[in-house]
Amino acid sequence: MKNCCITCWCPCITFGQIAEIVDKGGSSCGASGALYTLIACVIGCPCFYSCFYRSKMRQQYMLEESFCGDCMIHCLCEGCALCQEHRELQNRGYDMSIGWHGNVERRNKEAMMGRPVVEGSMSR
Predict the structure, then answer these.
(1) How many whole angstroms separate alpha carbon 37 and alpha carbon 91?
(2) Which one of 8, 16, 51, 122 is CB 3.0 to 4.6 Å from 74, fit for a cystine?
(3) Domain extents in the chain
C-alpha cells in the first residue's frame, strides 16, 4: 500500500529506486528520478524512458514478456507497471529503501552468516 501511494503521488521516487537496482548501482536513485521528472515535465510521457528499465529487468531475471510488450504496459498504466516492478525486486530480496550498495552490503553480511538469498518471479 505504501509503495502504491508513493508511486501515485511521486512516481519519480519509485522509478529512481527501480533504476538504481536494475543498473546495479550504475545510476543513483536521485539522478534517475530527476531525469524521469524532467522527461515528464518536458514531453509529458516518462513511460518512453521507464519502459526500457522494465525490459532490462526482464532480461536480467529471464522473465517472460507479456503479450502487450514492455512499452505498451508502461504507456497504458505507468503507475501499475512501476508498482509491479518495485514488488518484483522486493520479492527478489531487495530492500528498495537502501539502494544497490546497501543491498550488496546486506547480502554480503547475510552470506557470511549463512542465510539464503530468495529469488522469485514477476507476478501481479
Answers:
(1) 26
(2) 51
(3) 2-113
State the cell numbers at 3: 509503495
Predicted TM-score (pTM) of the model is 0.86
14 with 3: CB under 8 angstroms?
yes
pLDDT at site 80 = 94
In the block, cell 507476478 appears at 123
Mark residue 5 as left, alpha or beta (left: phi above 0; alpha: psi -120 to 50; beta: remaining): alpha
What is d(CA 108, CA 88) in angstroms, rounded to the nearest whole number? 21
SS (H, E, C) 71-109: HHHHHHCHHHHHHHHHHHHHHCCCCHHHHHHHHHHHHHH
Task: State how far Cα 22 lies from the chain centre.
Answer: 7
